[in-house]
Amino acid sequence: MIELEDLTKRYGDRLAVDHLTCTIRPGIVTGFLGPNGAGKSTTMRMMLDLDNPTGGTVRIDGRHYRQLHNPLRTVGALLDAKAVHGGRSAYNHLLCLAESNGIPRSRVAEVLDVVGLTSVAKKRSKGFSLGMGQRLGIAAALLGDPRILMFDEPVNGLDPEGIHWIRTLMKSLAAQGRTVFVSSHLMSEMALTAEHLIVIGQGKLLADTSMADFIAKNSRPFVLMRSPEQERLRDVLSGAGITAVPGAEGALEVTGEDAAHLGELAARHRIVLHELSPQRASLEEAFMRLTAESVEYHAHADRAPRWGGGG
Pick from 147, 165, 136: which is nearest to 78 by CA? Predict the structure, then answer.
């Protein structure tokens, strides 16, 4: 379990993490979301005592990270896969970590096999691709067989097979009763992996809830209706006191009504339906809605740069 209590980090006049209080519990994958500049990386660094908080505390199973003896046996973390001596082989990199944390040498071969790097174990890491480096970082996190695991952008550089593998791995680790905390900008992947979400914006806690509740509270569910008799369908809905608004490709969107009730209403009036489908917002849509006021860096798609022609 990871407990954050009133955690605060200030850089000069800038408040990077603003009195953050939450608990990351074992047995589930907890996703950590926030716009760029929200304070996610700073928070994770403070969890591992890589940055000192201005105020508040972080406890790892009741203790500060610095109090852990052989910390890799308690916490495994992937924050920067590039933090490897390029002249060392994958095997020797993990061996150094193992020997400094009282981990048996045999464990090195085990985790290399888990992440699929056995065939390149003796190669220098400076020749590794981004995905291979990511797998080596994951191997380091797993090395001490820890009860707590933290991953920052774990799928970065992985191919589809690798993404499926790390997703399955994180779920299996949580199913074993471990604490699994993962930060990612890939909303579609987070939606498939995390059961619980902690969302921050401008350093403040915005949400600490289940995935299902987060989407439900930050989205507008509706029913999409499509018919060759669209105008008559609109009239029937209006006559029943139901408001329908134009949707994509001529469909109608109805909010606040059950799909079964709408289908029965159309059937009573002998209206043919080509589509009757409940729509629920994606995690990305819910996230964008919640964090709209917390985005620090705004890009504008309608302001494309103009390239001058030759003169």
Answer: 136
In this structure, the number of other CB atoms found within 10 A of the CB of residue 261 comes to 13
pLDDT digits (tens, 9 = 90+) for 208-251: 999 888 888 877 778 999 999 999 999 999 999 999 988 878 88
Beta partners for 105? none
Q: Which amino acid is at 286?
A: A
Return the CA Rg of the chain.
25
Reduced to 3 states (helix: H, G, I; strand: E, B; else coil), residue 63 is strand
pLDDT of residue 86: 73
Evaluate if residue 296 carries a pLDDT over 90.
no
CA distances to 1, 9, 33 from 56, rounded to whole Å, are 17, 9, 21
The residues, any chain, with a CB within 8 Å of residue 302's CB and separated by 6 or more, are none
pLDDT in tens, 174-198: 999 999 999 988 888 888 899 999 9
Cα separation, 273 vs 261, whole angstroms: 13
Could you tell me whether strands 29-33 and 179-183 are parallel, antiparallel, or unpaired per DSSP bridges?
parallel
Phi, psi of 288 (to 5 degrees): -60, -40
Close Cβ partners of 176 (under 8 Å, ≥ 6 residues apart): none
Q: Helix axis angle, 259-268 relative to 230-239, nearest 10°?
A: 110
Strands 252-255, 29-33: parallel, antiparallel or unpaired by DSSP?
A: unpaired
**How far lies 1's CA from each of 38, 64, 223, in Å?**
23, 12, 40
More confident: 8 or 36: 8
Is the Cβ–Cβ distance between 20 and 43 less than 8 Å?
Answer: yes
311: pLDDT confidence band, cut at 50, 70 and 90?
A: very low
